[in-house]
């Protein structure tokens, strides 16, 4: 009844979006991390992000505060942020959790993915192959993120998707370091197996392919840390 006081003839009352400017900036910065656009060792300033997004520094600082609390970023100086250093212990922990959680999500996706989802995965897979052939690291990482998260979204669980995103915020910037090892070609072999398993609705095969992909990247990164 209270809302009726605000109704006027010819005026349509539209519910306000709950998404704030801070939320939008947070989402933009999150996407930059997940698709490898922020590289380990690179410093990004609050002002440069504010300028890029066309906003004041305040929502950028809030977004960076949230991402720092999630161990996705670290404060390098008062006005700059960067990707946290990756220790062997942290890398092992991330691998172990990803090994279980992402395999579960992929198995659920195999049970639930529809033909449209399979077609989308095929497009992402083609983009991965093209980027790898061209040696285009940025395009490869964007396609890699799109491929994997299309699978994890198909699992149909917002909770497991949030867990995986938090894990990727901590590890995905380091996928920039995998190119010279030839890992992108190895990863694409695993991606092909994931795609085939999902198309065949084979839960066990997709679990194995996801775990093999995670382990292949882990082996390269742990050797680089040495």
Automatic annotation (TrEMBL):
This is GntR family transcriptional regulator. It comes from the Bacteria. The keyword Transferase does not apply. SMART domains: FCD, HTH_GNTR. PROSITE patterns: HTH_GNTR (PS50949). Coiled coil: none annotated. Residues 19-86 form the HTH gntR-type domain. InterPro entries: GntR_C, TF_FadR/GntR_C, Tscrpt_reg_HTH_GntR, WH-like_DNA-bd_sf, WH_DNA-bd_sf. It comes from Mesorhizobium erdmanii. SUPFAM superfamilies: GntR ligand-binding domain-like (SSF48008), Winged helix' DNA-binding domain (SSF46785). Keywords: DNA-binding, Transcription, Transcription regulation. One of its GO terms (molecular function) is DNA binding.
């Amino acid at each position: 009844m209270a809302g009726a006081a605000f109704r006027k003839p010819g005026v349509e009352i539209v519910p306000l979006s709950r998404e704030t400017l801070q939320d939008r900036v947070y989402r933009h910065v999150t996407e930059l991390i997940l698709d490898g656009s922020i590289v380990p060792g690179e410093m990004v300033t609050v002002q440069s992000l504010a300028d890029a997004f066309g906003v004041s520094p305040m929502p950028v600082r809030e977004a960076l505060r949230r991402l720092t609390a999630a161990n996705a970023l670290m404060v390098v100086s008062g006005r700059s942020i960067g990707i946290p250093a990756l220790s062997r212990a942290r890398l092992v922990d991330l691998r172990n959790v990803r090994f279980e959680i992402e395999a579960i999500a992929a198995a659920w996706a195999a049970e639930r993915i529809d033909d449209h989802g399979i077609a989308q995965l095929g497009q992402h897979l083609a983009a991965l192959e093209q980027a790898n052939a061209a040696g285009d690291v940025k395009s490869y990482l964007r396609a890699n993120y799109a491929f994997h998260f299309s699978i994890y979204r198909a699992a149909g669980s917002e909770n497991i998707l949030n867990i995986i995103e938090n894990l990727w915020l901590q590890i995905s910037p380091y996928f920039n370091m995998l190119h010279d090892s030839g890992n992108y070609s190895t990863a694409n072999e695993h991606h092909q197996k994931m795609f085939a398993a999902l198309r065949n609705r084979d839960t066990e095969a997709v679990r194995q392919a996801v775990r093999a992909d995670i382990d292949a990247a882990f082996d390269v990164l742990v050797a680089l840390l040495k």
